[in-house]
Each structure stands twice: as C-alpha cells, then as structure tokens.
Design a protein that fits this description.
11 helices; 298 residues; coiled coil
Length: 298
Amino acid sequence: MILQLSSLRFSNHNNHHRMSEVSLSPLQAFRSIVTGNLHPLLESLKLGSDFLSLKWIHECFQVLPILNNEFAKLMAEIDYPVSSWEAGSIDEYLDYTMSILELLNAINSSLSHLNQARVSLSHALSLMESTPAMGVERMREITLHDSIKGFKGSGGDEERNRKGKERIFHEAILVMKGTAFWVCGVVLYGLRSDVWPLMEIMKSGVVVDCCLMPLDSIFRNKIIEKRGLVKEVEDVNETVRMIVSKGIGDFDVAMELKRRLEMVRNGLKGLKEEEEGLFAEVMAARNEVLETLRRKNK
C-alpha cells in the first residue's frame, strides 16, 4: 500500500470535480472486491466447521491488507493523490489509521497472553515426564484476557457537503472502517471469548456496509449458538481438564496435549506475523501521508 500511495503524489490533475463529473464505477468496483473477499468467510461460517478456528481468524485478518491495497488502487484510479486530499479526507484517514493501530495493539496483547499461557502449559507438560504430580498441579486452562479498554474509534463522520473525489474517498473510508473494525472485533472475540470487544468496537460510530451485513448477521447468530475461545484453544483446555481430572500422568493424553499445543503455537505464530506486518503497513502508509503534508506545507 505504501508504494502505491507514494506513486499517487505525482499527479497534477485538478481534483475539484463535482460528483457528477466523477464516475462512481471505481467505488462500485471497490465494494465488489471487498464483497468478493468476504464471501469465502461467509461460506465457511455457513458450513460451520471452521467457526472460530485459528485458520478462519487468520483468513479474516488477511482481508485487511487486501482492503488497504484496493483503497490505494481506488485513489489512483480516480486520480486523488495524497498531495491533493482535502482537509476532511486527511482527518478521516488519520483518525481511521490511528483506530486500526489501537485495535492491532489490543490483538497483539491478546496473542501474547495466549502464547504465554501455551508456554506455561508446555512447561507443565515437560514436568510430567519427571514428576507427574507436580506437572498435573501446574496444569491450568487458558483463560480470558482483557486486551481492550475504552475503545473510542475514529472521529464522528459529521454531515457536510462532500463532492466529487472527496465524496468517493469518504464512502470508501466508510467501507474500510466498517470492514476493518468488524474483522478486528471478530479476532478479539475469538482470542478473548467475549463479545464485549466486538460490541464496543461496533458501537463506536461504525456503519456496517451492505457488503458486510450478511457475514455480520450469520456471525452474530453463531456466537449466540456457540461460545468459547478459538477452537484449538478450547481443544487444549479440554485435554487439560482430562489430565487434571485423572490426577496422574497419562502418556496418551499428555501426547495429545502436546500435539494440540503445537497446533496452537503454529496458529498463533501465523496470526502474530500477520498482525505485525499489518501494523507496519498501516504505520508506513500513515507516515507517508504525514510526510506528504509536511512537504506540501513547506
């Protein structure tokens, strides 16, 4: 995204067109691409087998870099470079990216908490080989983690007369915001087993775009039917309960716990890499906008 945003600065075209002079087809195409990338997640939810698995959460996360790249392409297509953004567009973008960085920090905190719990269980498992009683005593289920407090979201979208390219920018940001905030809320729900982060995020002035509504509706129905942490973590907790209830070192159950902990480790590693890459991408794009403004105002 950062490279594409950088390339937008070299346009010298006049950007103050009326909406009637700017084709809406690029915006419609942008929405279609977003819908297309959400569709596989919707189909997985309908099937139900991957609901709240680390794999499904990872697939949700992977929508966000695509969203960022398509937004940059949309700005290029309508010839609305960063250097020509109206003050309102700048404020919207900076508010949006600041909120995303806040949510990614919360996700990072939850991932660290889960990974630390995994490491503790792996240590308890290793103790079972030499001192089974001590290993069993140290077995603890993976529990919730409060990783988001007082999320305010980006600034309100006050009503004003946006026209032409600024209007298209605004509509695209609304799609970005609704989709990105929803994805982050879903990820936090899975990592915390608590619907509160999703509710807190979605009540922060976010409008769910029509392309997201079918997915949001099915997801909400699913979390009413099923509660709990991500599937792989629930599987680990189930095995921990089996070991604790027996009170002795059971080799077969211990090996199953080791296998499940490895699955969690791999899943968390992939999510961590995705989160760190996305954080760096958003930060770089945000800094590029700020640098462009600095040069423009020299």
